[in-house]
Records
---
Amino acid sequence: MPQHRQNWFEGWRLFAVLALTLTALCLWIAGMRQFEVDGVRMVIRFTARSSLLLFCLAFGAAALARLWQNAWTGWLQRNRRFIGVGFAASHGLHAMAIAAFAAQDPAGFAAATGLASYVFGGIGYAFIIAMTATSFDRTAQAIGPRAWRILHLGGGYYLWFQFMVAFGKRIPEMPLYALFLIPLLVVIVLRLIAMASARTARTA
């Protein structure tokens, strides 16, 4: 029975559960404040954190599976594509909440953003769209394995850096935001250890 549940909770079913759950939670959070600006800003914060979690799981899946081979890391490795697309869904909801904030409170939105937000955030979303579009077998085959690896590896590291900046810049005002940097640092350390392990194995 546990194995059956694990097999069911994979692939596109996993993505559907993630996307529907995140959408329902966003509606519930915004609805608590009658879908006004405060509720929209709560959704922005919530989706930033859900995106962080899903990104770290997807970006660290291969390293975890290499360093610790067990049922959970194997499941994570098999489903990293769908967790990654779930991350894209989370950040899509994040973008929708930002657009709602801009529409409802233009002055507050202008005060909270700047040129750097548009430029670097826009690059981040361009990577997310491109990585999501090439997360299907046909599109991945169309661009070829080398281009796919460059896109997903480069995009992954860029998004990692963006998360570090986005959460890190809030630490002076809210020191507890330092906690959000922990999973990001753990993921990068795991990836570096896994790369060193793979290099050692090839040499041997």
---
Amino acid sequence: MVNHHPGGMQVTPRPKPSSVDEVDQHLEAWISAVLGEVTVTLGAPKESQSGKGVNLYLLNLVNSPPPRNVKERSPDRIMLRYLITVWETDPHAMHRMLGELMFTAMTLPEVDVELEPLSPAVWSALGLVPQPSFVLRAQLLRERPEKLAPPVLTEMVIKKALLRPLSGQVIGPGDVAIMGARVELPALQLSTATDFRGRFQFAAVPSDPPIKLLRVNAKGRTISVPVEKANEAVIIRLKESELIESEV
């Protein structure tokens, strides 16, 4: 936070706060830099106080989501709303203090100033008549801890799998070829249709691990068929009960 006092001298920038109490401390230091030696309190303003000072009262914490066009990982954001009031025995000096704080705050890029008056209900909840004041908004950012994947401690092993064709035939009762049956390899998300002889073929499937299951769609029914010998043609015999078309 870069702060200024009335003479224009800058306060050395500090790291961005990561907690509410650090924001409190930065704002307390900023007030002292602007007004010099004054009492700064974090409590609610009171009806009468001796000497001169500033009340830095935290009204509430408001969620402050990042802009919609920000796609990269962003930190958690909240907005802290502080009610700023001052006290001094001399009303002119009190107004001057409040004006210096307000105009200096308006030059700081990391805070915003709200000039809308507080509602009478808020002052009533504080037990006070309305007082000259303004609301200071300070944004608090906290980086989200990045979840790191555990390191891989073993060497990468690359296995070469040979490809081979897989063929077969789908036949029904009386060894009648089933044409147009849909044959699927669920593990590879591949499918093909049988020809007029009930034959099908997949040009290249991995030999290791071998294909263990086929799925056949015929006559409105779906049948799963285990593959026992992957290096031989697969003969799929469908029973009459498996070929009864389902009712529409």
